Amino acid sequence: MEPPLLEGLRESPVRFAGHIGFFSQHSVEDVFSQGDSVALLGRSDELWAYTVSDDSAELSRLFARLVRKEGVRAFALLEEWMLPLLRPLGEATSELTCIRYYYPPDRPLPARPEGIGTEPLTLDDVDTICAESEYRAYISPEYIAAAITDGYSAGIREGGRLVAWGATHDDFAIGNLHVLPQSRRRGYAAAIVVELMDALVTEGFVPVMNIEPGNTGSRALAEKLGFLSDRVVTWIIM
Into which CATH architecture does domain 123-205 fall? Predict the structure, then answer.
């Protein structure tokens, strides 16, 4: 049976798509609350705090408790209004801000590009992905291995060589997307994203992509496939 807290998040499946994805595959290790504001703690590469709040006064007090008393240092999917409440509590050593895109739950999935076959990634692909990724600072071999074994992945090979790939993150957001330069403009990225979208929808998840504002190529791809921009979200490690 699904934890009651997760059932509550499903009442807002778009806003809390990342929370739902993360705690569908990671245990809730602890819960802290302040009024109606809640922080759920779960561990992947860090012990991450996922907050649920609409009240700045409550959340400010909750952040202070988490940082000063509980020693929590990693915060995921912070909305823009939450950042000024957290920043006075310490300096960020790592920070990633993205535009969150979601695929409307009531919209049919886009058609798969014709003539392009995908296959799941394997652990033998980890070294290639880590070596070629543009986000080396945010991933590790262990992180990619977990994405392959615990999440959803898709790759394309030419002559047995992996040339394009994607895999869900620890919150089931579609990402880790990369196509080697010599294999671009063939529809590979779209084929991989649609494959991952299908896998997520089949399991009852809202497809989400978190894209840095300056990544115009990925943003154009998401919009072409029918994703809608939702909000700006930030991950911070204090």
Answer: 3-Layer(aba) Sandwich (3.40)
Going by C-alpha positions, the residue among 43, 39, 50, 17 that lies closest to residue 29 is 43
Measured CA distances, 25 to 18, 70, 109, 233 (Å)? 11, 23, 24, 21
For the chain, residues classed under CATH 3.40.630.30 are: 123-205
- d(CA 17, CA 24) in angstroms, rounded, equals 10
- What is the torsion angle, in degrees rounded to the nearest 10, for the CA atoms of residue 205, residue 1, residue 233 and residue 90? -160
Write out the two tokens for 41. 């703690």
- What's the pLDDT tens digit per position in 139-193? 789 989 999 999 999 999 999 999 999 999 999 999 999 999 999 999 999 999 9
Where in the chain does DSSP place strands (E)? 30-34, 37-43, 47-52, 74-79, 94-102, 153-158, 161-168, 174-179, 208-211, 228-237
Q: How far apart are CA 132 and CA 120, in angstroms?
A: 18
Residue 161: both structure tokens together: 């060589």
